[in-house]
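Our preliminary data section would be incomplete without showing what the modeling component actually yields. Below, a chain of 272 amino acids is followed by its predicted structure, encoded as tokens that our downstream tools consume directly.
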Amino acid sequence: MITSSPTEFLRVGRISALNMYPVYHHLELVGGPEFVFTDGLPTTLNHAVTNGDLDVSAMSSIAYARHAAELELVPVACISATGAVDSILVFSQAPLEGIRSVAVTPHSATSVALLRVLLGPGPLFGPLTTSPREALRDNDAVLLIADEALSGGRNPFTDYVFDLGELWRARTGLPMVFAVWAARADLAPAQREILGDLRQLLTDAQEYYVRDPEAVVRAAAERFPFPPDFIAAYFRRLGYGFGADERAGLNEFLRLAREAGQLGHVPEPLAA
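Predicted structure:
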């Protein structure tokens, strides 16, 4: 754990998956020593922010909502999809209506809550503690995210594969916001100044990617085990801005998550 004065830098969570690379690529290029990055998958970063081990991060939308009283939204960026997302997949041995049990990834809070919204209260959810193929011996389906889901989607190992982004779009007609940026509400004044810089960099990152997506794809291909054409197509499915449509999608997801027993209290609706 970092022991230097917390007012000199901002501890920033960095999702260690391909989906956030268009944003983090720019932060790496231009971010100075005032940003100290910690890599991890969403649930790890969620806990680090809520426990005070990180100051700000992209974090699961449902985790933000569950801790909204102690956090503040950084409303300039998110991870969203307006349809199939390719990296949040259910691999199933049964059709959707026939799924009775699912081994769910331990790495994503939003995806698990979304799956409960989509499937309803019937199917049993248990933790995925073995390989997906082993888990299918005792479950009808497995829920995978991020690079593991991308790899499975390229080489499916079940008869049915369901994309949660696509299912959400079919149900609501809205974008699905999988992650938002949030900071601790108790930041020191000097950290708040750095947070302002981060907000601008998050906006700049989106503009940089739009101007030169090929450069980001090439850099990503050097880090992740996927070919450039595949990465480019995947990035086109994702959105990083946080506009009116994304706010409406997030509000609807949180409302339905509350109805499904996944959220105790819905934060104040986000202005569209």
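The chain is about 45% helix and 20% strand. Residues 251 and 269 are 6 Å apart (CA to CA). Preliminary results of this kind motivate Aim 1 of the renewal.
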